[in-house]
Design goal:
Blueprint (H helix, E strand, L loop, with lengths): L35 E2 L7 E3 L1 E7 L6 E9 L2 E10 L1 E4 L4 E4 L2 E5 L7 E6 L6 E6 L2 E5 L11 E7 L3 E6 L7 E7 L8 E3 L5 E6 L11 E6 L7 E6 L16 E7 L2 E6 L6 E6 H6 L12 H5 L2 E6 L8 E9 L20 E8 L14 E5 L7 E6 L3 H4 L8 E6 L11 E7 L3 E5 L7 E7 L8 E6 L2 E6 L3 E6 L5 E5 L5 E6 L1 H6 L5
Parallel strand pairs: 1-32
Antiparallel strand pairs: 2-30, 3-35, 4-5, 5-8, 5-10, 6-7, 8-9, 11-12, 12-13, 13-14, 15-16, 16-17, 17-18, 19-20, 20-21, 21-22, 23-24, 24-25, 25-26, 27-28, 28-29, 29-30, 31-32, 33-34, 34-35
């Protein structure tokens, strides 16, 4: 991957308009300013996948699903983008927040409740990200409680008691008064949380940095430090690196992704050094260049047109294509070890109808953590499905983020916006290949996506698969930015044979 420059690109705007889909052949797109245009037909498209269950999520624009086993139940917590809809359970119009769905029986998902989020539209409201920890696992948690950590729109982060998922109650607000909070990660076994927050509040030059808390006792949060890339810290000069998007911790490493669509940076951090701070500094956690560099194992600046929306570590892969390792002899190696450490990186499509650079997924070899390098990429054939003409975004958005043994080191699940869900076999990470996909049908809740062309506002009804997730049973969950709902899927055919389902 080549060193990146810095560029800025903004997301397109979408209005929420319900539309019914009729039968017949594909209709041409109209060009009237502001006109709502829908295809006359857009059925489900699938390969090696089938629909198990569905919930409309009250027609709310959805970002992130998280599936948690609570006792003998499986509960889906779905974070939403901003907007407002009527909650049929109480008849009230509520700002989008967090949907809670019982998916114990995936064929009959049951909507339990809606936790109201921050007022605002699109990226400026809602409650996009959720994480859940059992109090029995947290070192100082109440063993009788289950805790939900979520973003509150873009202004903060808060913790809820979801011990009874149908009756959540607010416990504490950790961060408030910000403008660009986004994702979070929470280590349930230690309680350490990595919160994407607005760095400008603390004098940083970036609107998204990491604020680290000890949430081992959620009712007594302890702030540890702020962290960012060099060049984002207070008082720094020159170009500002792209904003943080999120972090995924694993063992003694944290994998940070910056620049969702452009100017991407992959940063690998030594967790222990990050949490203890620089022992050579009078103030170990002060945001100085020396302190920010101290825990850094490596920083990889990607190509200017590439971002790092999601960075999923896949360690200890056995790659059959590699010859047996021969120890160094006479100053050179005669082979390479078959066991490799990988990082699966997805960047993010943000512009409607492909009015942007190519956004895809990458496999990065991090066996030598200090010198990561890209070894393969994945994209789908746009022309075969005429995805750019369908409306809305087309391209990668996110991969799943958990490591269930059924799929780990075997299959990856990518949200591809108008391309639906794509399933990739990466058992040979140097030759990723698609083995399954599912593109949901447009329904009565699917919203329009608009694009101004030659001064004319052109709007098309289009599905926008946003984020995927899987559970320990192997079910796959996708949610839709355009309000189409949540689909619960399972693999079939040859794709299912790749997974590690119990015999």
């Amino acid at each position: 991957m080549l060193k990146a420059g810095r560029a800025v690109m903004r997301c397109g705007v979408a209005a929420v308009v319900a539309a019914a889909v009729g039968a017949g052949s594909m209709a041409a797109w109209a060009a009237e300013d502001g006109a709502i245009v829908r295809p006359a037909s857009r059925k489900v498209e699938s390969k090696n996948m089938r629909l198990v269950g569905y919930n409309d999520l009250q027609a709310r624009s959805a970002y992130q699903p998280l599936i948690v086993k609570q006792g003998d139940k499986f509960i889906a917590y779905v974070g939403h983008h901003g907007g407002k809809h009527v909650n049929p359970m109480n008849g009230q119009t509520e700002d989008n927040g967090t949907s809670v769905i019982d998916v114990t029986d995936p064929k009959k998902p049951k909507y339990l409740t809606h936790i109201v989020g921050e007022p605002g539209e699109g990226e400026s409201g809602g409650a996009q990200m959720v994480r859940v920890c059992d109090g029995k696992t947290l070192p100082k948690g109440d063993p009788n409680k289950t805790y939900l950590l979520r973003t509150y729109g873009t202004s903060g982060h808060e913790i809820w008691d979801v011990s009874n998922p149908a009756k959540p109650s607010h416990l504490i607000t950790l961060v408030k008064g910000h403008k660009d909070t986004h994702k979070n990660a929470w280590e349930c076994d230690t309680g350490i949380a990595y919160l994407v927050t607005d760095g400008r509040v603390d004098g940083f030059r970036s609107k998204r940095i990491t604020k680290i808390f000890d949430l081992s006792d959620p009712m007594n949060p302890k702030f540890i430090r702020n962290f960012s890339l060099i060049g984002q810290e207070p008082g720094s000069k020159g170009p500002v690196p792209e904003d943080l998007h999120g972090a995924i911790p694993l063992g003694n490493r944290i994998y940070f992704g910056y620049g969702t669509l452009l100017g991407g940076v992959i940063q690998i951090i030594d967790r222990e050094k990050l949490l203890k701070g620089n022992p050579n500094s009078k103030d170990p956690f002060a945001p100085t260049p020396e302190n920010l560099l101290y825990p850094q194992v490596s920083r990889t600046d990607m190509h200017p047109t590439v971002g790092a929306h999601t960075t999923l570590p896949i360690l200890g892969m056995e790659v059959d294509d590699f010859s047996n390792f021969v120890p160094q002899s006479e100053g050179f190696r005669t082979g390479r070890p078959k066991t490799r450490d990988m990082l699966l990186v997805a960047n993010e499509s943000t512009q409607n109808e492909c009015h942007e650079d190519y956004h895809m997924a990458f496999m990065v070899d991090i066996t030598d953590e200090t010198r990561p390098y890209g070894v393969s990429n994945f994209h789908i054939d746009e022309k075969a499905g005429k995805f750019c003409d369908r409306g809305g975004r087309f391209g990668a958005h996110s991969s799943h983020e958990n490591m269930t043994p059924i799929y780990h080191k075997r299959l990856a699940f990518f949200a591809w916006c108008s391309g639906g869900l794509r399933v990739v076999d990466y058992r040979n990470p140097y030759k990723m290949k698609e083995v399954a996909y599912y593109v949901p049908a447009i329904n009565k809740n699917t919203a329009q996506r608009c694009l101004k062309v030659d001064g004319v506002n052109r709007c098309k009804i289009a599905i926008q698969t946003n984020n995927p997730e899987v559970d320990d049973r192997g079910y796959i969950y996708i949610v839709d930015r355009a309000g189409t709902g949540m689909h619960i899927l399972e693999l079939t055919g040859d794709a299912r044979k790749i997974a590690n389902f119990p015999k």
